[in-house]
Amino acid sequence: MPELPEIETVRRGLERETVGRRVKTADVRAAKLVHRNGSKKVFQSRVEGTKLKSVDRKGSLLVANLDSSELLVIDLGETGRLLRAAPKEAVETGTALVVSFTQGGQLRLLDPDNSAEAFVVESGHLLEELPELGDLGLDPVASPVSWTAFAQALVNRRNAKLKHLLMDQSFVVGLGDLYADEVLWDAGLRADREVSTLSTMEIRRLYRSLVEILHEATKHHGTSDEAHPFVDIHGKEGSFQEELEVWGRAGEACRRCRGTVGKTRVGGRVAFACPNCQV
Question: How many Å from the N-terminal Cα to the C-terminal Cα in the chain?
């Protein structure tokens, strides 16, 4: 599943490539994709003829502001991806939506496992449609997060284990196993440590690592490997996999202490870590 750096990479690509373009047609090829709008025809009627004014992100959701004062919301789900294409290019199997612009080709949503979603909603009613957005946590990529705000977010989570905390969308948005493991390695902390056991210095290291890893991964356009496949809207892979320190490196030497990277389970989730230098 794409994590925060990958979703932000897609958002930036959409901002460059689709803002200012007017939708000519919206060909819905999988009715389930637009179920929130009731039918394909309703979705099409609210999208066709509109111009994209901007592309924002709410957690892991992509939100395009339309000149109709409505929002086009896209959730990529587990394996969905967006692709810019020319009309003459063959349509891949699993394509659920083809948006054609009056100028500038097409935007295609590929959804091989039928977990993606797209819908149109009035701009002031997004929280009514998705109340969980009101509980989203910190988003270090969207806006700067201060040390004070980070520490405050920890106050009521003293019994939480660090990996579970990092993957809690109400604490910080968009993290999965990969970036949680990388952040914890960088901070030198075990995945099963409880917040209550952290010193002030350790909290500061966790804060710094969280912010730096997410920004660095976004700068590299995300991570693309066999276990974590990702391509941007032009079909280009990210490159942060070349910077990974523990994810997928079980049995290899830790680059910090020369110990051996291990693979364990924490609360039912796989965790990659160095047992020597993460305490």
Answer: 28
For 189-205, give the DSSP string.
--TT-BGGG--HHHHHH
What residues have CB less than 8 Å from 222, skipping those under 6 apart? Answer: 2, 3, 5, 6, 9, 230, 232, 238, 240
In this structure, are residues 244 and 255 in contact, taking their beta carbons and an 8 Å threshold?
no
> Residues 162-181, buried b or exposed e (16+ Cβ, 10 A)?
bbbbbbeeebbbbbbbbbbb
Predicted confidence at residue 66, as pLDDT, reads 98
State pLDDT tens for residues 84-123.
999 999 999 999 999 999 998 999 999 999 999 999 999 9
Q: Which of 250, 240, 244, 242 is nearest to 271 (CA)?
A: 250
Tell me which of 3.20.190.10, 3.30.1360.40, 3.40.50.2300, 3.40.50.300 is the CATH number of domain 4-135: 3.20.190.10
| Number of CB atoms found within 10 A of residue 193's CB | 20
Residues 97 and 20 sit within 8 Å (Cβ to Cβ): no
Torsion over CA: 241, 246, 251, 254 (sign): positive
